[in-house]
Design goal:
Length: 137
């Protein structure tokens, strides 16, 4: 049984990386166990780890679900100077999405559910506000 997820990104300048990711995520890390390492719990049981080191080529993107991708696009363009961030959609895909890179080359992005009821249902399930049939097993 898998019950938690961690995803690690590496940056060559940890101090700048911590500032950058704190701005991206709108908050300071939840856990800093030692120098050169920080973690944010994005939703219960899902952790983004920031580590000092060489970024991995070809990894990602990791995309974060947001309620308003256009607002987030504007925010990261203004606060993090992200220029290369286009929003895409396809009729057969239930979300809009966009991808960009951090200053170290890690691929990141956001996605937004097009159907707002589906988005609300997903948020409620993830946050434990509704009984998930899979938990009954």
């Amino acid at each position: 049984m898998i019950f938690e997820i961690t995803y690690q990104v590496r940056v060559t300048d940890f101090s700048e990386g911590e500032k950058w990711y704190s701005t991206l995520l709108n908050r300071r890390p939840d856990f800093i166990p030692h120098e050169g390492f920080a973690e944010w719990e994005l939703i219960p049981g899902t952790w983004l780890q920031l580590a000092e080191g060489t970024p991995s080529d070809g990894c990602g993107p990791i995309r974060f679900g947001v309620p308003d991708i256009k607002a987030e696009q504007g925010r990261v363009r203004k606060e993090l100077y992200i220029e290369d961030f286009e929003i895409f959609s396809k009729a057969e895909v239930p979300v809009k999405w966009g991808t960009f890179s951090d200053p170290w080359g890690n691929r990141l992005g956001f996605f937004e559910y097009i159907n707002k009821q589906e988005q609300a249902d997903r948020m409620n399930t993830i946050l434990g506000k509704v009984e998930d049939e899979r938990r009954k097993v």
